[in-house]
Design goal:
Number of strands of chain B: 2
Strand order of the largest sheet of chain A: 1-3-2-4-6-5-10-11-9-7-8
GO molecular function (chain B): ATP binding; glutaminyl-tRNA synthase (glutamine-hydrolyzing) activity; transferase activity
Largest sheet of chain A: 11 strands, mixed
CATH topology of chain A: Amidase signature (AS) enzymes
Order of helices and strands of chain B: HHHHEE
Family (chain B): Belongs to the GatC family.
Distance between the termini of chain A: 50 Å
InterPro entries (chain B): Asp/Glu-ADT_sf_sub_c, GatC
Radius of gyration of chain A: 22 Å
Number of helices of chain A: 16
Helix content of chain B: 25-40%
Radius of gyration of chain B: 23 Å
Strand order of the largest sheet of chain B: 1-2
Number of strands of chain A: 11
Helix content of chain A: 25-40%
Shape of chain A: globular
Distance between the termini of chain B: 41 Å
Catalytic activity (chain B): L-aspartyl-tRNA(Asn) + L-glutamine + ATP + H2O = L-asparaginyl-tRNA(Asn) + L-glutamate + ADP + phosphate + 2 H(+); L-glutamyl-tRNA(Gln) + L-glutamine + ATP + H2O = L-glutaminyl-tRNA(Gln) + L-glutamate + ADP + phosphate + H(+)
Oligomer: heterodimer
Order of helices and strands of chain A: HHEHEHEHEHEEHHEHEHHHHEHHEEH
Pfam family, one (chain B): GatC
């Protein structure tokens, strides 16, 4: 196996085509400046985001000021972090003090949080330049960004297709070269599924590995912020910046962060036992997705990994359990949007009661999917149904965790396709909740168990020419194994392709031919 | 079990969402489909399986009880729909005057 090489695309002069690690090195060496790099990305956003709609809010002035601060620190000889001066797209579900934080919802339109999320604070401390906030399904509920109250994001590979969700904006920003780094959050696949359908890398760290402080909660026992980028090493470097114990999050793990950067640099899978999950394939999986998946497993075997098959019989119940647990937690978490302390208030005419104002505001401020899930959660938690629904779902969660424990006795990591199909068309599943939910079949088990999980690009489907993702799952606190496998795949596939997959993406300059829901 | 629009209206009232009649009619059959699907969880979960509410076996995370600076009043009220006398102003919370 050859030594790690710099992908061909990073050698070009256009800063938006370079990797984050390469940009940071060039800034540190004085070959370019953070301001120059930031300006190039702002120009790129200006040129393509009308077609892609990855961003809900861009603050060029603030980004350039952060970049100038990095350049000043460099000029003063102050030590800089490994990603200092590199621009980033932040999912609009994490607070960034003073910047609009909408969560893709009308109920938070115009709200500017008075504090930074821990993830945001760590980005700023690392000298990373936040370009703006990216689009998402409202309150991260969805798999296509079509549930955003501000219109959908378009997949840069094909503007008529979904970019995945809920973090479609962050993934699309990477694929359209609007930012080399992005932050997502993953409750049931919202980092990994968008990564898969856009040909980018996305990692859901071990639950508790990154802080949820300042992340507007969807389902607290499932939510986890994570790094997204176009290369495995960039993703690992970003992971290292945001991960680690945070006393402000009571579910944050007080343990050392696995050395993800060393794992990404190594890519050594010799002797690693890779378990193919029998239940995550077959009926319902697109032939082109399965083909690319099998080829990638063969590449891992060629790189020295030991391939085994594992069975997780309860994974088929993970999806139904998730769609009870998530709405239950969400209906409780979203009770805070009560029109009293922040956000929208409707119908306060001096006569209506607080309760009436609350109900009118939530009717006006929430979209269809959010209402659907709140009602579902309210039902699942109501007395008389609690045992049959939420209680049973919690038992299924135990069974899924046991399946993982058994599988990890036979394998060091597990692999599967990230999604059963490639990106579907905008509008195709908007009013068919069950078809939409089926997207997350492969990604949900990891959220229920709280382990580490990632999606890596493994080529374009021969069926439709759209990106396919491979999911890698590692036991809790073994996040480094994800990067080991990802780097091995990236290296082997890059040699096959003669460069990164995204070199082949078309320019997203054409206007989308269909407009789907306002 | 089939959920009627009236059942959904009762749930919406508990959830404090003033759904329109059209939404109630649209949501009822959708929720029925979803509930029929998620009902599969009852097939496997036996009595001897303990429930899992959370992936981390954490209990009682404490920090030292010390005074720290918090948000000042202005910042805390900056996002309020209405404020008065350094406080959140809310609609009336008591019942109709008799």
């Amino acid at each position: 196996m050859s030594a790690p090489t710099t992908p061909a695309a990073t050698a070009t002069g256009d800063p938006t085509r370079r990797t984050a690690v390469d940009l940071a090195a060039a800034i540190a060496a004085g070959e370019t400046s953070a301001v120059e790099v930031t300006r190039a990305h702002l120009d790129r956003i200006e040129a393509v985001d009308e077609a892609v709609h990855a961003f809900l809010h861009v603050d060029g002035e603030r980004a350039l000021a952060s970049a100038a601060e990095v350049d000043r620190r460099r000029a003063d000889g102050e030590p800089l972090g490994p990603l200092a001066g590199v621009p980033l797209a932040l999912k609009d579900v994490l607070t960034y003090a003073g910047a609009p934080t909408t969560c893709g919802s009308k109920i938070l339109e115009g709200w500017r949080p008075p504090y930074n999320a821990t993830v945001t604070q760590r980005l700023l401390d690392a000298g990373i330049v936040i370009l703006g906030k990216t689009n998402l399904d409202e309150f991260a509920m969805g798999s296509s960004t079509e549930n955003s109250a501000y219109g959908p994001t378009h997949n840069p590979w094909d503007l008529d297709r979904i970019p995945g969700g809920s973090g479609g904006g962050s993934a699309a920003a990477l694929a359209a070269f609007e930012a080399p780094l992005a932050i997502g959050t993953d409750t049931g696949g919202s980092i990994r599924q968008p990564a898969a359908v856009t040909g980018t890398v996305g990692v859901k760290p071990t639950y508790g590995g990154t802080s949820r402080y300042g992340l507007v909660a969807l389902a607290s026992s499932l939510d986890q912020p994570g790094p997204c980028a176009r290369s495995v090493l960039d993703t690992a470097l970003l992971h290292a910046v945001i991960a680690g114990h945070d006393p402000r999050d009571s579910t944050s793990i007080d343990a050392p962060v696995p050395d993800v950067v060393a794992a990404a640099r190594s890519g050594d899978v010799a002797g690693l036992r890779v378990g193919v999950v029998r239940e995550l394939g077959g009926e319902g999986y697109a032939p082109g997705v399965e083909q690319r998946f099998r080829e990638s497993v063969d590449l891992l075997a060629a790189a020295g990994a030991e391939i085994v098959e594992v069975s997780c019989p309860h994974f088929r119940y993970a999806l139904p359990a998730y769609y009870l647990i998530l709405p239950s937690e969400a209906s409780s978490n979203l009770a805070k949007f009560d029109a009293m302390r922040f956000g929208l208030r409707v119908g306060d005419d001096g006569v209506a009661s607080a309760e009436q104002v609350m109900a009118a505001t939530r009717e006006a401020g929430f979209g269809a999917e959010v209402k659907r899930r709140i009602i579902l959660g309210t039902y699942a938690l109501s007395s008389g149904y609690y045992d049959a629904y939420y209680g049973q779902a919690q038992k299924v969660r135990t069974l899924v965790i046991r399946d993982f424990e058994n599988a990890f006795a036979a394998a060091d990591v597990l692999v599967s396709p990230t999604t059963p199909t490639t990106a579907f068309r905008l509008g195709e599943r908007v009013d068919d909740p069950l078809a939409m939910y089926a997207n997350d079949l492969c990604t949900i088990p990891s959220n229920l168990a709280g382990n580490a999980s990632a999606s890596f690009p493994v080529g374009l489907s021969p069926d439709d020419g759209l990106p396919v993702g491979l999911q890698v799952i590692a036991p809790p606190l073994a996040d480094d194994r994800l990067y080991r496998v990802g780097a091995a795949l990236e290296r082997a596939l890059g040699e096959q392709w003669g460069g990164p997959l995204l070199d082949r993406i078309p320019e997203p300059t054409a206007r989308p031919s269909v407009e789907v829901q306002a | 079990m089939a959920l009627s629009p009236d059942d959904v209206a009762a749930l919406a009232q508990l959830a404090r969402i003033d759904l329109t009649p059209e939404e109630l009619a649209h949501l009822a059959p959708q929720l029925d489909d979803i509930l029929a699907s998620v009902q599969q969880v009852s097939e496997v979960a036996a009595a001897d399986i303990p429930p899992t509410s959370h992936p981390l076996p954490l209990t009682n995370v404490f920090r030292t009880d010390e005074v720290r600076p918090g948000l000042d009043r202005e910042a805390a009220l900056a996002g309020a729909p209405a404020a008065e006398d350094d406080r959140f102003r809310v609609p009336r919370i008591l019942g109709e005057a008799q």
